[in-house]
Amino acid sequence: MRYIISGSNFVTEMMVPAAWSNGHTDWKYIRTVNRMFSGHRLRTFPHYTFFDLRIRFPVLKGIRDIQILNYGDYDKFKAMETMQRELGWVNYGGKHYESIYTRFYQGYILPAKFGFDKRRSHLSCLINDGRITRDQALAEIQRPP
C-alpha cells in the first residue's frame, strides 16, 4: 500500500493549535483514561502504538497520506446534506463526535481539564472560509460542548 486517502482538510482543520490535539492518538493515554472511567477493556478500539509505527511496521514510513478534500471546493454543509439525502446519514451533533471517546474527549475532557474548546478553532476555520458568520459562531459557542 503506497497511499492512504483521508478526510483531513485545511478548510475545517487548519487553525487548530498543536497543543489542543495532544492525546487523541496516544494509546497509553487512551487506555489510561478508559481504565479510569470505564473499567472495561478496549478490545475492538483501533490503535497503533509508537512501537508498532516505528519498529513493527516500518513499511508504514513510506505510505503517503492524500488529503483528498484539499483538491476541490470542499463545503462541509453541502457534504452533510448530500450524505443525509443519499446515504441516510444522521448528524451526530459535533465535529469528531462520531465516537463516544471523541465526544467525551472534545466535549468534556478538553474544556473541563485543560480549559479549551476545540469548537473555537473549528468554527474559526468555517468563518475564515466564509461558510458561517462570526455571529453564528458566537451563538454556537454559547451552547455547552
Describe this structure in words.
The protein is mainly alpha-helical and 145 residues long. It has one domain. 47% of the residues lie in helices and 6% in strands. It has a two-stranded parallel ribbon with strand order 1-2. Helix 6 (119-128) packs antiparallel against helix 7 (134-142). It is globular, with a radius of gyration of 17 Å. The mean pLDDT is 83.
Secondary structure elements and their pairing?
Elements: E1 3-6, H1 10-13, H2 27-37, H3 50-56, E2 64-67, H4 76-87, H5 100-114, H6 119-128, H7 134-142
Parallel strand pairs: 1-2
Notable features of this structure?
145 residues; mainly alpha; two-stranded parallel sheet; globular
| Biggest sheet, spatial arrangement of strands | 1-2
* Shape descriptor: globular
The H-and-E topology, N to C, reads as: EHHHEHHHH
Strand content: 5-15%
Unreliable stretches (pLDDT < 50, length at least 5) are: none
Rg over CA atoms, rounded to whole Å, is: 17 Å
Number of helices: 7
Average pLDDT for all residues: 83
The domain tally reads 1
Measured as a percent range, the helix fraction is: 40-55%
Structural class: mainly alpha
